[in-house]
Design a protein that fits this description.
mainly alpha
Length: 127
């Protein structure tokens, strides 16, 4: 009887962990989309600071995400943030627009992994 109780307890802990992880990944993804949608237009003076803040937010979340999300997917988001930052700082408007679109795609890919194949649910708006 004790082994059954321990098994049920472990199953409950596993479920709580899986659900908590799912909620956390979706929270981070939603926040990244919110920040992407709120970015100023390329060429705007405030854009560099907004990108810096988004990069700092991502760096704060990255280590925890890497526990359960494929490292390459997490790294791609960081890479696109670096490219976006470089384009903004150098005044490359077209490069910044491309990096922004690729960053959105990278975040969508992380969220897409949270849903069963074919569900079509990503949980974020697209432009």
């Amino acid at each position: 009887m004790k082994s059954m109780a321990v098994t049920l307890l472990l199953l409950a802990l596993l479920l709580v962990g899986v659900i908590g992880n799912h909620l956390y990944i979706n929270k981070v993804g939603s926040e990244m989309f919110r920040r992407l949608d709120a970015l100023s237009a390329p060429g705007d003076a405030a854009l560099a600071e907004e990108v810096r803040e988004m990069t700092e937010y991502w760096k704060a979340q990255r280590d925890r995400l890497e526990i359960t999300v494929n490292f390459l997917m997490v790294d791609r988001v960081g890479e696109q943030l670096s490219i976006l930052s470089a384009c903004v700082e150098s005044g490359d408007i077209h490069g910044a627009q491309t990096a922004r679109a690729l960053l959105r795609d990278a975040v969508e890919n992380i969220l897409r992994m949270e849903y069963p194949s074919g569900s079509g649910r990503v949980g974020a708006s697209t432009q």
